[in-house]
Amino acid sequence: MQSFPQLVFSGVQPTGNLHLGNYLGAITKFVALQETHECIYCVVDLHAITVAQKPAELTSNIREVTAAFIAAGIDPKKHVVFNQSQVAEHAELAWIFNCVARMGWLNRMTQFKEKAGKDRENASVGLYAYPTLMAADILLYRATHVPVGEDQKQHLELARDIAQKFNNDFLADNPEFADGKTFFPLPEPLIQGPATRVMSLRDGSKKMSKSDPSDNSRINLADDADTIAQKIRKAKTDPDALPSAIEGLAGRPEADNLVGIYAALTGGTKADVLAQFGSGNFSTFKSALVDLTVEKLAPIGVEMRRLQADHAYIDGVLRDGANRARERAAATMMQVRDIVGFIR
Ligand code: AQP
Predict the structure, then answer these.
(1) Ligand 1 atom with minimal separation from the 151 CA
(2) In sequence order, what are the beta bridge partners of 199?
(3) Which helix (H) or strand (E) segment is 272 a member of?
(4) d(Cα 144, Cα 217) in Å, to the nearest integer?
(5) Which long-range contacts (C-beta less than 8 Å, at least 24 apart) are formed by 110-114?
(6) 13, 60, 91, 342 — which has fewest CB within 10 A?
(7) Same domain, yes or no: 270 and 296
(8) Atom 26, ligand 1: which residue's CA is nearest?
(9) Is the CB of 110 under 6 A from ligand 1?
(10) Is 115 a residue of the active site?
(11) What percent of the chain has pLDDT over 90?
(12) Is 210 a catalytic residue?
């Protein structure tokens, strides 16, 4: 198998209400990977408009995600941070991938089914084609590793299928790739740890989500310490004490979720948490979870709000990141145009 230089790519949609799930499932991973990899982190605003957005809110949400990245510890000087719409090559490669991906593949995507709901006829074409744009985001930089939450696993598999089909369809008769070399890597999802799918605080069967109408279902990164504490205290639980072993969490989604959040915030495992709090009173554990969450998130929220208000700084970061991303994207697209047979 051909090896490609390791490169990390991932994105977050600027759709408002950035929450603890986004933080634990994605952003903390982004921060950690900076130490070992070259990373590109994107505010995926083209994805955001697959559902209706108010322009002024979209602008503000793009700044919110950028500010959250930086407040959480992403260094935009050492790595690349930008918003997708500033690099037109994302849309160009997505079009080519629309012609590579098969209808049958996209018809299987569960996120489209969930987001379109019963009113499919009224969903945008963009929402349906969302996964081909996501494949383009990753493959435009020939990224090899993609940190995401569990909910994005299916889209990552589709990105691999698209890369494979592009390589098969276009390289077989190309003398430059005669020795079995491929053009696109098959990107690997990085989905690990105790909080790859953080659940709603009100309903342990639903994932924590920006679009949940109940603000109490999620902890927003912008929430202050009092709000965080109140939401955790109100979080749904069952009447039993915490178990002392992981098996005891089976069939108790709300307890499992809170234990997973505690484990992820300490960098430990659920077993560690149960070793500390198992068999004890749920309210003792909840108080400790409040303290821990406030300690970890509140300073990020404060810094995020400060940065978000500094439009000149945030917009400058995005512009600089876009310039660096565009250079790499343009180089890939020159080769892609040649491979496909376009004249340039
Ligand atoms: N609940 C979650 N637990 C763990 N990871 C999560 N992610 C999202 N929700 C959870 C991960 O966060 C990254 C950015 O997500 P996104 O904004 O691009 O899209 P999303 O998955 O659609 O986010 P939401 O919050 O659920 O938004 P809505 O309500 O609009 O659907 C991704 O890596 C995602 O896996």
Answers:
(1) 35
(2) 207
(3) helix 270-277
(4) 34
(5) 110/154, 111/151, 111/154, 111/155
(6) 342
(7) yes
(8) 209
(9) no
(10) yes
(11) 94
(12) yes
Instruction: Assess whether the C-beta atom of 25 lies below 6 angstroms from ligand 1.
Output: yes
Residue 239: the pLDDT is: 87
112 within some domain: yes
% helix, strand, coil for the chain, step of 5: 60, 10, 35
- Contact status, residue 54 vs residue 101, Cβ threshold 8 Å: no
Residues 264-293: what's their mean pLDDT?
A: 94
* 140 and 179 part of one domain: yes
On whether both 296 and 235 belong to a single domain, the answer is yes
**Does the beta carbon of 153 lie inside 6 Å of ligand 1?**
no
Task: Report yes or no on 139 lying in a domain.
Answer: yes
Please determine, for residue 48, whether its predicted confidence score (pLDDT) is greater than 80.
yes
pTM to 2 decimal places = 0.96
Which residues contact residue 147 at a Cβ distance below 8 angstroms, ignoring those fewer than 6 apart? 8, 10, 26, 29, 30, 33, 189, 190, 191
Is the pLDDT at 1 greater than 70, yes or no? no
Cα 209 to averaged position of ligand 1 atoms, centre (Å): 6
Q: In what order do the strands lie in the sheet with 188-190?
A: 80-83, 38-43, 7-12, 145-147, 188-190
Q: Ligand 1 pocket, 149 CB below 6 A? A: yes
What is the pLDDT, as a whole number, of residue 85?
98
Among the atoms of ligand 1, which is closest to the Cα of residue 148?
33
pLDDT of 2 above 90? no
**Long-range contacts from 55-60, C-beta under 8 angstroms, 24+ separation:** 57/16, 58/14, 60/308
Q: Is residue 218 in contact with ligand 1, taking CB distance under 6 Å?
A: no
Residue 179 pLDDT exceeds 90: no
Ligand 1 binding pocket includes 220 (Cβ within 6 Å)? no
* Separation CA 131–CA 129 (nearest Å): 6
Catalytic residue among 153, 165, 210, 296: 210
Catalytic residue from among 54, 77, 113, 115:
115
Integer Cα distance of 15 and 10 in angstroms: 16
Domain range for residue 85?
7-196+311-340
Tokens, residue 187: 């990107």
Give the total number of structural domains in the chain: 2
Tell me, in angstroms, the distance from the centre of ligand 1 to residue 281's CA. Answer: 31
E strand or H helix at 21, and its extent? helix 20-22
